[in-house]
Amino acid sequence: MVSKNSMSRLLLLMALILSCSSMSGAARYLEEYPSHPAVPELPKPELPPHPAVSELPKPELPPHPTVPELPKPELPLHPALPEPPKVPELPPHPTVPELPKPELPHPAVPEPPKVPELPPHPTVPELPKPELPQAAVPELPKVPELPHPAVPEFPKVPKVPHPAVPEEPKHELPPLPKAELPPKPEFHFPEPEGKP
Predict the structure, then answer these.
(1) DSSP letters of the chain?
(2) For the chain, what is the mean pLDDT?
(3) What is the pTM of this model?
(4) How far apart are CA 22 and CA 15, in angstroms?
(5) Backbone φ/ψ region at 190: left (φ over 0), alpha (ψ -120 to 50), beta
(6) C-alpha–C-alpha distance, residues 10 and 17, integer Å
């Protein structure tokens, strides 16, 4: 079964072939047939002139009627407001008599009881310092001076000359052989026989 992608490709290819063939047919048609003959210009018809239109008379309108002036209504004057009644004067505030301050007797503060006097601190008698007998430090015995031992001198080592090292001969390596690739094998394909 053909997929949608290949179907769309086939349709596009068919449309291209058809458009190419139609274009080539149109080109062939233009080559075979001569060009169109020149069309003669038609004479312009002469129209009669427009008839003169007579001007219409302007209608005379009557003048605007005059509007009579309306009399201004006279407004009554503002009525006089009656005076508000006078507020009667209030009597002055009564004076509050000052109350006598009661004299309270101060309470008698009791005297604190007397603290009995304590006897003076007893004097502590000084204790006599005990005299310790001085201990006799024993004298250390004198260390006898030892004579320094004589250090024996080491015998001098004679200088031995370094032996001459003989030079080793340089070993020359033989040259490496060049790697040769094997020859490419030749393939002989049989020629296809023609179909009978």
Answers:
(1) ---HHHHHHHHHHHHHHHHHHHHHHHHHHHHHSPPPPPPPPPPPPPPPPPPPPPPPPPPPPPPPPPPPPPPPPPPPPPPPPPPPPPPPPPPPPPPPPPPPPP-PPPPPPPPPPPPPPPPPPPPPPPPPPPPPPPPPPPPPPPPPPPPPPPPPPPPPPPPPPPPPPPPPPPPPPPPPPPP-PPPPPPP-PPPPPPP-
(2) 78
(3) 0.17
(4) 11
(5) beta
(6) 11
32 dihedral zone (left: phi>0; alpha: psi -120 to 50; beta):
alpha
Model confidence at 11, pLDDT cuts 50, 70, 90, reads: very high
